[in-house]
């Protein structure tokens, strides 16, 4: 192996490590922020892979046929990393949809579902008993002359550095929902 091949192999190895590190970081961000499948997230997952495959095809084309197994190993590894990232997106997509059974039986997964809940169910204007029929009994219920509020614990807040619980707070006036918000603390 001549000097040019050695330098090229080292550069290729370093670029592949950077590629894997980039996907590892992308995987962590997707997991931490519960990013779901969208055109934007698909593009973010596919684009580095497309660039890698283009560079691999373009620059490794001149290597002799006895070394083609190296291109196959690199391509297969790159494709596997991309596939794992897609599986995480699909998992997030599944768990992000509001599901009453999961809401009631797995309260720690509520934080992942609350966005879909608020987009698919208009809670403002509902009567308190309708909210309880939809979401089950609240974690905390405050009724007094000044405040009427249903509070559901969502679990650990959805952020990169989660330390606080998040809560779905539903304010009531005369047993009718007047405000819905997510708080932390």
Structure described in brief:
With 185 residues, this protein is of the alpha+beta class. It is 58% helix and 17% strand.
Structure commentary:
The protein is α+β, with helices and mostly antiparallel strands and 185 residues long. The protein folds into two domains: 3-96, no CATH class; 100-184, Beta-lactamase Inhibitory Protein, Chain:B, domain 1 (2-Layer Sandwich). Helices cover 58% and strands 17% of the residues. It has helices spanning 3-33, 39-60, 68-96, 100-105, 110-120, 128-135, and strands spanning 140-143, 148-156, 165-173, 176-184. Strands 1-2-3-4 form a four-stranded antiparallel sheet. Helix 1 packs parallel to helix 3 and helix 2 (39-60) packs antiparallel against helix 3 (68-96). The model has no long low-confidence stretch (mean pLDDT 81).
Number of helices: 6
Order of helices and strands: HHHHHHEEEE
Instruction: Supply the number of structural domains.
Output: 2
Global geometry: rod-shaped
| Widest sheet, order of strands | 1-2-3-4
The beta-strand count equals 4
Q: What is the residue-averaged pLDDT? A: 81
Class by SSE composition: alpha+beta
Low-confidence stretches: none
* Portion of residues within helices: 55-70%
Beta-strand residue percentage: 15-25%
Termini separation: 61 Å
Largest sheet: 4 strands, antiparallel
Cα gyration radius (Å): 24 Å
